[in-house]
């Protein structure tokens, strides 16, 4: 069954001033070649400030480009389960493989899409996110006041988040990673997050739960919430997540060989689970929630 399509909107930045429309899409979005972008421009799928442009139209910084992608069939995804629910908030168990927000090949097959289908009226709003390949606990707000309160706790680092992770190598019993995380250039996507000296501060505390013959089970508590923080930090420390197709030792993404499929952050295969959350409920009471891990992350 096809979805309803999607519209991608972006503003022309100074670096693209003077480029043609065809040059812009060919250079910035390399998942398609020049002939494919030319066909989309000719079909009227591309608009410049609301008007269909010619492929040779020169861009001016500050203008808005939109690409109306035709409907497509999205891959199937698993469904979430409810762990806790009241009038103010919701705590769910997100399975690995379910994206939270639209992106890549997913628009309707997302957590947000499932929430809209399950809850009439304004659906619960995620207070934080988990990567598509990460399973476990997520908090969602059901009222504007609950959203403001829980979001403030997130920003002020008053919500304690504990994860289980399966890593390669033999790390020490306890260690802390403080590698800054920021954007770096990446083919097709333009950028992604990785270990970067010029990035934002990040901190992850790690403790070994069990050593195995080929892997180690860790408990990880994060004090910041940078994108893909645990994946990046454990790779930066030399202990990448088992099965992670993207982040290699050093905390940088793998570079695909010519002809190989480009790996993106939403690709699954790694073992990471949001196990425990400690927070203040919007009613003022301290709450703690735990979500049992999948078998490969059990003690």
Would you write up a description of this structure?
- With 299 residues, the protein is an alpha+beta fold.
- It has two domains: 6-69, Structural Genomics Hypothetical 15.5 Kd Protein In mrcA-pckA Intergenic Region, Chain A (Roll); 81-297, Pseudouridine synthase (2-Layer Sandwich), CATH 3.30.2350.
- The protein contains five helices and 17 strands.
- The strands form four sheets. Strands 4, 5, 6, 7, 8, 9, 12, 13, 16 and 17 form a ten-stranded mixed sheet that branches. The chain has a three-stranded antiparallel sheet with strand order 1-3-2.
- Strand 6 and strand 7 form a beta hairpin.
- Helix 1 crosses helix 2.
- The longest helix is centred in the middle third of the chain and has 12 residues, at 144-155.
- The two termini are 41 Å apart.
- The model has no long low-confidence stretch (mean pLDDT 95).
């Amino acid at each position: 069954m096809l979805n309803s399509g999607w519209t991608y909107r972006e503003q022309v930045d100074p670096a693209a001033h003077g480029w043609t429309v065809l040059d812009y899409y060919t250079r910035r979005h390399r998942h398609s070649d020049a002939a494919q972008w030319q066909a989309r421009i000719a079909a009227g799928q591309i608009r410049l400030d609301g008007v269909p442009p010619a492929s040779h139209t020169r861009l001016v910084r500050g203008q808005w480009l939109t690409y109306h992608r035709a409907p497509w069939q999205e891959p199937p995804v698993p469904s979430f389960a409810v762990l806790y629910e009241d009038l103010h908030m919701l705590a769910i168990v997100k399975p690995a493989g379910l994206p939270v927000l639209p992106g890549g090949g997913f628009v309707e097959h997302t957590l947000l899409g499932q929430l809209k289908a399950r809850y009439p009226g304004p659906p619960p709003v995620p207070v934080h996110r988990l990567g598509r390949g990460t399973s476990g606990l997520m908090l969602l707000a059901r009222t504007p006041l609950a959203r403001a309160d829980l979001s403030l706790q997130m920003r002020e680092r008053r919500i304690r988040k504990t994860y289980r992770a399966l890593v390669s190598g033999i790390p020490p019993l306890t260690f802390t990673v403080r590698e800054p995380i920021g954007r770096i250039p990446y083919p097709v996507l333009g950028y992604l997050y990785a270990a970067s000296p010029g990035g934002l501060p990040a901190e992850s505390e790690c403790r070994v739960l069990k050593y195995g013959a080929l892997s180690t089970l860790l408990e990880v508590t994060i004090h910041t919430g940078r994108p893909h923080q645990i994946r990046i930090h454990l790779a930066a420390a030399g202990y990448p997540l088992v099965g992670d197709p993207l982040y290699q030792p050093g905390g940088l993404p793998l570079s695909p060989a010519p002809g190989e499929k480009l790996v993106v952050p939403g690709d699954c295969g790694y073992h990471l689970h949001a196990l425990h959350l400690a927070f203040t409920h919007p009613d003022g009471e301290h709450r703690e929630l735990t979500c049992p891990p999948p078998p490969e992350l059990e003690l």
